[in-house]
C-alpha cells in the first residue's frame, strides 16, 4: 500500500503532521507522499523530512475557489489524480473535522489507533543555519534578541502592530528584536531558515502560528503566545509532548 496524504492545511498544521509521518514509517517501513498547498512551495517545509517520499502541490481550498466545500472536493479529486498518475494506491484526507486534537485526528485518518510518539519535528539544513546567522548578524549584530511574529494571514489571529516588541521590552528587557516581515521578508527565505532564526532567539512573542508550533518541535520555550480564538482552538492544536509555553487568551497590558 502506497499512501498520498492530501493536506491542504496551514504550515502550523504541517508541523502537527510530522509525528504520524515518522511513526507510520517506523511501524511499516514505508514513507508517504504529501500534497500541500502550492503557496507553500517556497517554504520547503517537507523538503528535508526523511519520512516523506514525494511532495505534491495543490490549490488552496479556502481561498482559490468560490466555495470552500467545493474547493476541498476539487483538491481531493486532484490528489486522487496525482495518486493514480504516480502509483499511490490510497489517498488519505485529514480534514480535521473531528473535535479532537489534530495530532490524534491525523493518526485516526490513517487508521492508526494510538499515537505512538506525539513529538513534533522540523528538519533544517546547514544552508538554513548559515542563512539565519547572516540575517541575525545584519539585524542585531552579536546582541541577544527576541523573535516576533505579528501578522499570520488570518487577521483574527494576529497580534496588534508593535505589540511583540513592546512586550519583549517590558517583560524580558530586550532592546533588540527580529520581526517576521519587518526585519526580513517571510517569502524571501524558506520557512526552515526562519526556524533557525527563531531557534537562536532569547525570547519569543508570537500569535497562534507556525512559529508557535516550531517552538514545540524544537523544545524551545515560548514566552508569549496569543490564542485570540480561544481555548477550544488551543486544545485542538496544542503539542502533546511536554513543552514550556506561556499561553495567553487575552493580551497583557504593556
Q: Please, could you describe this protein's structure?
A:
- The protein has about 250 residues and is α/β, with parallel strands linked by helices.
- It folds into two domains: about 5-110, Rossmann fold, CATH 3.40.50; about 125-250, Rossmann fold (3-Layer(aba) Sandwich).
- Helix content is about 35%, strand content about 15%.
- The chain has eight helices and nine strands.
- The strands form two sheets. A five-stranded parallel sheet has the order 6-5-7-8-9, sandwiched between helices. Strands 3-2-1-4 form a four-stranded parallel sheet, with helices on both faces.
- Helix 5 (about 165-170) links the parallel strand 5 and strand 6 (about 175-180).
- Helix 1 crosses helix 3, helix 1 (about 10-30) runs parallel beside helix 7 and helix 4 packs across helix 6.
- The longest helix is centred in the first third of the chain and has 19 residues, at about 70-85.
Compute the number of structural domains: 2
Strand order of the biggest β-sheet: 6-5-7-8-9
Q: Tell me, briefly, the overall form.
A: globular
Number of helices: 8
What's the helix-strand series? EHEEHEHHEHEHEHEHE
What is the CATH architecture term of the largest domain? 3-Layer(aba) Sandwich
Q: Averaged pLDDT, please?
A: 97
Helix content: 25-40%
Poorly predicted runs: none
**Computed CA radius of gyration, to the nearest angstrom:** 18 Å
- Remind me, CATH topology of the largest domain? Rossmann fold
Give the secondary structure arrangement, pairings included.
Blueprint: E1 3-6, H1 11-28, E2 32-37, E3 52-58, H2 68-86, E4 90-92, H3 102-109, H4 126-140, E5 146-148, H5 163-172, E6 177-179, H6 191-199, E7 203-207, H7 210-218, E8 222-226, H8 231-237, E9 245-248
Parallel strand pairs: 1-2, 1-4, 2-3, 5-6, 5-7, 7-8, 8-9
Helix pairs in contact: 1-3, 1-7, 4-6
